Amino acid sequence: MNQSMMNRMDRKKEEMRNRIIDSAITLFDQFGIDEVTMDQIAEKADVAKGTLYNYFSSKDTVIAAYIQRSFYNHDRERIEEIQNLPNTQERLTFLLMTLLQGIRRQKALFEKYMLYRMRLTLSFSPISNEMESGLSSLIEEIIRLGRDEGDIRTDLPADLIVGFVEYILIAAIKPYYLQPETYDPQAAVDACIRLFINGSKSEKSEQL
C-alpha cells in the first residue's frame, strides 16, 4: 500500500471519527447525555453499530474525544499565550480560568468527562494517547518554562507533576458543581495554585 493511499485512509478514519463525535454532541445537546444511547449515536452518524464501537467503546470515550479535540484545536494559540506570560503562577491561572470558561459553557458534559478521567486515573492502567486529556501539552509547556526559570523543581519526573496539576484542576473546579451559587472562581484558582507553588506549609513556618 503506497503512502498516498495510507494518507487517504487516515483522512477517512478521521472524518468518520469527527462525524461520530459531532453526531453525539448534537444528540447530547438535544436530549441530555443520560438519555442518549449508543444506538442513537450510530443512527445519527449513519454508521453501523459495529463501526461505532470500532471507534468508541462508550459515550464516555466519545465525550473524552470531543474534549480532547477541543483542546487540540486551540493548542498552538494557547501555548503562545502561555509562553508570553511572565511566571508559573500566571500561566497556571490562565490555564485554569480557560478551562473554567469551557466548563461553564458545557457543565454537564465536563462533569461526565471529569468523572471518566478520575476512573481512568484510579484504574492504575496506562493511559493511551487517545485517552489523554488534551491538557497535557499545555501543562508540559508550563512545567518546561517553570523549570527553565527555576520555579519548578527538576528532581521529580515531569509526568508526576503533570498528574499533580490535573488533580489541582479538579480541586479548583469541584466546588463549582457542589456550590455553584457561592462559587468564586478566582479565589478557588488562586488557592489551588498557591498550594501547588508553595506547598502546604503555613505562612508562619515560611517566615521562620
UniProtKB/TrEMBL annotation:
One Pfam family of this chain: TetR_N
InterPro entries: DNA-bd_HTH_TetR-type_CS (IPR023772), Homeodomain-like_sf (IPR009057), HTH-type_TetR-like_transc_reg (IPR050109), HTH_TetR (IPR001647), Tet_transcr_reg_TetR-rel_C_sf (IPR036271)
SUPFAM superfamilies hit by this protein: Homeodomain-like, Tetracyclin repressor-like, C-terminal domain
Domain HTH tetR-type: 14-74
Keywords carried by this UniProt record: DNA-binding, Transcription, Transcription regulation
GO molecular function terms noted in the UniProt entry: DNA-binding transcription factor activity; transcription cis-regulatory region binding
Residues of the DNA-binding region: 37-56
N-terminal signal peptide: none
PANTHER family assigned to the protein according to its UniProt record, in alphabetical order: HTH-TYPE TRANSCRIPTIONAL REGULATOR BETI, HTH-TYPE TRANSCRIPTIONAL REGULATOR RUTR
Name this polypeptide is given: Transcriptional regulator, TetR family
Organism: Flexilinea flocculi
